[in-house]
Design a protein that fits this description.
Layout (H helix, E strand, L loop, with lengths): L2 E9 L3 H12 L2 E7 L11 E4 L5 H8 L2 E6 L8 H19 L2 E6 L22 H19 L4 E5 L2 E3 L10 H8 L4 E4 L5 E2 L1 E3 H13 L7 E3 L6 E2 H12 L5 E4 L1 H7 L4 H6 L15 H7 L6 H15 L2
Parallel strand pairs: 1-2, 1-4, 2-3, 4-5, 5-6, 6-11, 7-10, 8-13
Antiparallel strand pairs: 9-12
Helix pairs in contact: 1-6, 2-3, 3-4, 5-7, 5-11, 7-11
């Protein structure tokens, strides 16, 4: 039975937000989803509320009664610098006003380019526009925790894939062609190791972070399956789809050319360092602390292929 006294409010109804919702519903929690339209494909019993979160009062009203607030919303990729501070700042204030714990779904941009694996002991050392703005808004979250304004925690995932994930580098450009026996489009050097995060693992991990007192005030890299090369990842996709492997790789200059016409591609150019060198995320801190392990990569790929068979365009 849903417990209305332990209301969980999820800001954002993209793949991550809905994965959080799925996990909360599995745990019998009462859930409210907040987005701009007031519409979302959610399980029965989940409340969906329309709110312009760039309006501080609207964000506060949407979070009323929350025990835990999940920040899974983000601006359009080409508007991060202009819009992210207000978006995350308003959700932070809304959680504080409600007396709720705040769980932020973050990424690995804040660490910048590093030698070796990415881990939580690294300083925020972003060198890209989007990395710097994420570092700014995430540091504000941790500062609010340190000041006692709100209990807060940040869970960080790598490039993600899975059900509902379309726009990621491991989204529709990789999975849909495979289902047709055509070349999957990948970014950068496909023979370098690159950690990918399964979206259902990401959602489950954020819920764990919302539950656990010892998680608060810290960064956590969420569980990831073993890191393989992008080529090996795509090979698993084609095996699940029943076709021989075909890959088309896009380098930095091709991305820059595409950016002349597509704003999202233009914004991706500065992040190409992730695909031109090994990009490995170490999630051992999370797995050792909470005992939660990632879905094995072949299983996660098979589930994603099955979802695309049913839902892909």
């Amino acid at each position: 039975m849903n417990n209305r006294e332990n209301l969980q409010v999820v800001f954002g109804s993209g793949p991550l937000g809905l994965s959080v919702v799925d996990e909360l519903v599995r745990r019998g929690q009462a859930v409210r989803v907040v987005n701009r339209s007031g519409k979302a494909d959610v399980p029965a019993g989940v409340e969906v509320v329309a709110a312009d979160v760039y309006d501080r009062l609207a964000a506060r009203n949407a979070a009323k009664g929350a025990a835990v607030v999940y920040q899974c919303a983000q601006p359009p990729y080409n508007k991060w610098v202009e819009l992210f501070p207000a978006l995350q700042g308003n959700i932070l204030d809304a959680a504080a006003e409600a007396g709720a714990r705040l769980v932020v779904g973050g990424n690995l941009y804040v660490y910048g380019a590093v030698e070796g694996a990415l881990h939580e002991g690294l300083p925020y050392n972003a060198h890209t526009r989007k990395g710097k703005i994420r570092a700014q808004v995430d540091e504000a979250v941790l500062a609010a925790h340190r000041s006692g304004k709100v209990q807060a925690v940040i869970g960080r995932g790598s490039d993600f894939f899975g059900p509902r994930v379309m726009g990621s580098t491991a989204g529709e450009r990789m999975f849909l062609p495979a289902l047709r026996g055509k070349a999957a489009s990948v970014v950068g050097n496909p023979d370098l190791p690159h950690t990918h995060t399964y979206i259902e693992d990401f959602g489950r991990a954020l819920v764990v972070l919302g539950e656990r007192d010892e998680a608060q005030g810290q960064d956590w890299i969420v569980p990831n399956a073993e890191t393989v090369s992008t080529r090996e990842m795509v090979k698993l996709i084609f095996e699940a789809a029943g076709y021989p492997l075909k890959i088309s790789a896009m380098g930095k200059w091709m991305m820059a050319f595409g950016g002349l016409f597509i704003p999202e591609a233009r914004e991706s150019v500065e992040m190409m360092y992730e695909f031109e060198r090994p990009f490995i995320a170490d999630s051992s801190k999370f797995t050792q602390t909470f005992g939660l392990r990632a879905t094995p990569l072949p299983e996660a790929v098979q589930k994603t292929v099955a979802w695309y068979r049913q839902h892909g365009r």
